[in-house]
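In the design runs reported in the main text, the only information available to the sequence generator was the tokenized backbone. The following block is the verbatim input for one such run; it is reproduced so that readers can re-run the procedure and compare outputs position by position.
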């Protein structure tokens, strides 16, 4: 949901242009007020986690003003970046666990999760794969199953997490296998 002052729009996250990236661009010119404008984004029953919102203000240059005389006003051009409530960053965005066999455990890889938003967050993890549940069954975060992962972050707070992959003993797949680790943020 996008909220701007008293106006709100729902259903804006529809997987355009990609399933995991949605771009929605619209003018809020008709909803501007003289001061104290509010811009927000919020996840609402669509499982899309808003991560960025940009409010672009364009100021057209006025005609050159003559040199002010005492008692005339002087204009100031204003710009603002509205920080989203829910916005987190995870680095790195790709991990390679190397070459492993059934029953083997990878070395530990560290990732950094940062709350770049303006509110306290509760962060959880979800794993999907098309590799016969290799990552669903074997991915560990901080020496525990990924399903147990939960951390709370204050604005600008960071959390280092250790990831490793334990290949199940009965795993029979071969070749390069892909998976996705998704971090979900919820406002506290």
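Verbatim output:
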């Amino acid at each position: 949901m996008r909220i701007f002052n008293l106006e709100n729009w729902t259903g804006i996250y529809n997987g355009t242009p990609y399933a995991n990236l949605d771009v929605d661009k619209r003018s809020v010119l008709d909803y501007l007020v003289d001061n104290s404008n509010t811009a927000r984004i919020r996840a609402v029953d669509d499982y899309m986690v808003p991560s960025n919102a940009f409010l672009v203000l364009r100021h057209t240059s006025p005609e050159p003003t003559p040199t002010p005389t005492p008692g005339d006003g002087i204009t100031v051009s204003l710009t603002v970046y509205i920080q989203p409530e829910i916005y987190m960053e995870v680095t790195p965005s790709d991990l390679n666990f190397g070459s492993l066999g059934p029953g083997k455990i990878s070395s530990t890889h560290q990732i950094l999760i940062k709350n770049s938003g303006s509110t306290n967050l509760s962060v959880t993890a979800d794993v999907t794969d098309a590799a016969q549940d290799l990552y669903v069954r074997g991915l560990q975060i901080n020496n525990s199953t990924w399903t147990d992962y939960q951390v709370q972050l204050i604005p600008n707070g960071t959390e280092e997490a250790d990831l490793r992959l334990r290949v199940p003993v009965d795993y029979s797949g071969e070749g390069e296998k892909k998976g996705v680790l998704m971090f979900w943020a919820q406002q506290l």
